[in-house]
Amino acid sequence: MRLHRLLVALLCLATLGLTAAPAAAQTVGTGTLTVSNILWKDRPNQNLMSNQLNRADCLADVKATVTAAVRNVPASGNTFEIWSGTGCDQQANRAPTSVSRTCSKVKSVGNPVDQTIEIAYRDLIKPYGDDSPATAAVCDQNVATGLITRTLYYIIINSSFNSVIATTPSWSFKYDIKGPPPPTAVKGSPGDESIVTSFTPPPSEPNLLKYRFYCSPKGASPVAAGGTASTGGTNGADTGGTDTGGTDTAGTDTGGTDTGGTDTGGTDTGGTDTGGTDTGGTDTGGTDTGSVGGTTGGLGAGTSGTSGTTSTAGTAGTGVVIDPNCQSSSLIPGQDVPADAVQCGEVVATGASGGETTPDLTNGEEYVVAVAAEDTVFNVGKLSNLACATPKDVRGFFESYRDAGGEAGGGYCSFAPARRSGTAFLLALGAAALVMRRRRK
Hints:
Elements: H1 2-26, E1 32-35, E2 39-41, E3 52-54, H2 55-59, E4 63-71, E5 78-85, H3 91-94, E6 103-110, E7 115-120, H4 121-125, E8 148-158, E9 163-167, E10 171-176, E11 184-191, E12 194-200, E13 208-217, E14 342-348, E15 354-356, E16 367-375, E17 387-389, H5 397-403, H6 422-440
Parallel strand pairs: 3-10
Antiparallel strand pairs: 1-4, 2-4, 4-7, 5-6, 5-8, 8-9, 8-10, 11-12, 12-15, 13-14, 13-16, 16-17
């Protein structure tokens, strides 16, 4: 009985030993990974927070650096990787074969050792499942409107078991690579050295910050009136392969040489006239062997022509009609704001359906105004339709009184006799009389 119990105990210990070994290997040490705060460099707009990224950052291909400190993690058999997406600390969300992958690899750093790592912003926002280095094309990908949230994961992975053995708190960031659409139905009316605008705000734009006004003198547009036409793609050229036939070389027909035998007569020796034996040489004609004609060349197989390149789809038209009566030489509706465009005011987006430009225009001259929307990460969208107006002098009583030489303050009753002009005093006196008359009523 004792022997039986001892055997059972030994079997149990052996079983425990077999199951414990893989678990220990899977958790290769109790390693730690510490990563510093992300530090962006050469950003076009330094006012943005480090966890907010915009289209200008993408176009400029900005990069960041972080410093990683690794402790108690063997370099052999382990890999330091950086991922972007959702739930990237779970292997299922990183698996290349997953049909619902929610992550993309930003960078494979290699051995987990202390080091400074450079991270490209474009790699943070590339589509899920794309593990190759991102290009400028990622800045124009079709993404949702408004701010998009992703998370950056720093992970040390055991390559044998594809399991996470060390990680650090993930870093959440937001990005927006699409400028907001412009307001529509922009109209302008005269202001005093300004243009007063009205417009319809763009619908369903969640993170608008403000509207910018751009002004220019009225002038001929570089684009034909009636809207910017859509440019169709160029059809690819279909180049057929060269059909080269086989060369038909006939064999050279060379006849054999016909060599006759030599006829040597016997020698006639005097004395006994014994005729020599006349032995005619054997006349052997040469064998006339014609060469076999060359094999007729077969029809050469033509190489198949390369299919024509599929034409690129034409760029969509702007959809904004250029009014032949209201044009600008620099502002084009539906296009980006030109680098040399003159901003002539702005208004906070919340609740706005119009606004007035700054009073810097010249009264009596014709101007064009366009409006562009800006979002909370400073993406500026396309220009709206153009509106034209001619600023003019809009004068009230107080301006007229001041221009006439009056020196009183802003109230009707806070005036004094004009020192330079009796007309100003009479105007002020008349205003005061009107006020007194209304009060009596």
